[in-house]
Amino acid sequence: MGRYLLRRLNLFLATSLALVTVLFITTSYFPVSKPFALSGIATPTTEQLAQIEADYQLNGNQLQQFIAYAQTRLSGDLGLSVTSQRPVLEELTQALPASFELAIVSGIIAVLFGVPLGVLASLSKNKITQHSIMAITLTGYSIPVFWLGLTLSLWFGVELGWLPVSGRINLLYEIEPVSGFMLIDTLLSDSAYRISAFKDAVFHIILPAITLAVLPFTVVVRITRAAMLNIMELPFIKAAEARGLHTGTIVLRHALPNALIPVLKNMGLMLGTFASYAMIVEVIFSRQGVGSWLVAGIYQRDYTVIQGGVLGVALIIIFFSILIEVLHNAYNPLSRKEIYAAN
Q1: Domain 96-296: which topology?
Q2: Which H or E element spans position 282?
Q3: Which residues pair with 87 in a beta bridge?
Q4: Which residues, other chains included, contact 14 with Cβ-Cβ below 8 Å and sequence gap of 6+?
Q5: Pairwise CA distance, residues 307 & 78, whole Å
Q6: CA geometry: angle 151, 264, 145, nearest 5 deg
Q7: What is the pLDDT of residues 205-225, one digit of tens each?
Q8: Among residues 255, 264, 276, 277, which one has the least CA distance to residue 329?
Q9: How far is CA 289 from the centre of its chain?
Q10: Dist. CA 206–CA 216, nearest whole Å
């Protein structure tokens, strides 16, 4: 197991190095001076320019510049934002909790509704039920996320007026940020209106969370159904049925835990797509997350924000993809057997 974890760590480092290499090469093609693209300071003083040249080894060869760039970026120095002149790392860390909050809520919705529907589609003998569930998942998988977000905003926000369509909370509420998660910070607040603020934050996250949850929901349903159909035909399930165990007990205690293994694996494989969809959703619903922050940086030609945002988001995706793979292999007995055999 130790060798396996070491190989995953090496994979993370190698992928991160490749990412930094791509960013370093891309930086050379920005239509501005290199000190400006690297630091975010448009008109540096003589001392600042000398410091930038020393930090990034701009007077050295390409290899020296790349090593200096990698050391600077991976140490957390992402430069200053061109528009706000604040550290990019500070802006990134402030935007991350909102994106994590949306992703977590969307993931919970996808799993809570996707797994039962997948199980129902696999166990039901009614062809109409099976075909209806699969038609719903195919439709959800095919709908463009931007169209779905705009449609839900129009129906439930504009025409019916049931739910808010922008922001994370009503501006009337003044909530002191503690964790960055609005749903948590409202409850941690010592104000008299914290319950009302919490309900308002819940209403604000419903539409973007549902919009983002549609894609993983469809994947969870289809993978759960396929896994359950396969597992229910295995010998240990047939043996449990022969012993007279109730169908619900067989499904919950024996079949479903094994069916969740491929679900976990596929959730890790679609993290990149999930993150790109989350950026679109944040822009549509004007949520102050990494996606809207990065898109705003692109529109404003904020070169340090673009570099820092891409680097931060990509590293998070790489890390969680490898983490999910490790959890999948630790949870899956067959994978553990292969790991120990390899060692």
Answers
A1: MetI-like fold (1.10.3720)
A2: helix 271-284
A3: 80
A4: none
A5: 8
A6: 15
A7: 999 999 999 988 998 888 888
A8: 264
A9: 11
A10: 16
pLDDT, one tens digit per residue, over 298-313 is: 888 888 898 888 888 8
Residue ranges of alpha helices (H) inside the chain are 2-27, 34-39, 46-56, 62-74, 88-123, 127-142, 145-152, 182-188, 194-231, 235-242, 247-249, 256-269, 271-284, 290-299, 303-331, 333-342
Region of 289 on the Ramachandran plot (φ > 0 left; ψ -120 to 50 alpha; else beta): beta
Q: What is the DSSP letter of 161?
A: -
Residue with the two structure tokens 């596929």: 266
Q: What's the chain's average pLDDT?
A: 84
Degrees, nearest 5: CA angle 67-294-10: 40
Does the structure show a pLDDT above 60 at 341?
A: no
Instruction: Give the H/E segment covering residue 43.
Output: none
Q: Which two tokens stand for residue 133?
A: 């569930």
Q: What is the DSSP string of 97-148?
A: HHHHHHHHHHHHHHHHHHHHHHHHHHH---HHHHHHHHHHHHHHHHS-HHHH
Nearest-angstrom CA–CA distance, 226 and 118: 8
Q: Which residues partner with 36 through β-bridges?
A: none
Q: Are 13 and 297 in contact (CB under 8 A)?
A: no
* Rounded-to-10 torsion of CA 5, 8, 10, 11: 180
Q: Cβ(130)–Cβ(170) under 8 Å? A: no
Contacts of 334 (CB under 8 A, 6+ apart): none
123: left (phi over 0), alpha (psi -120 to 50) or beta: alpha
pTM of the entire predicted model: 0.85
The strand pairing partners of 80, in sequence order, are: 87
Length of the chain: 343
The Cα 286–Cα 171 span in angstroms is: 13
Cβ(102)–Cβ(278) under 8 Å? yes
Dist CA 32 CA 46 (whole Å):
18
Are the CB atoms for 322 and 316 separated by under 8 Å? no
Kindly state the tokens that stand for 140: 């959800």
Token pair of 276, please?
Answer: 């790109």
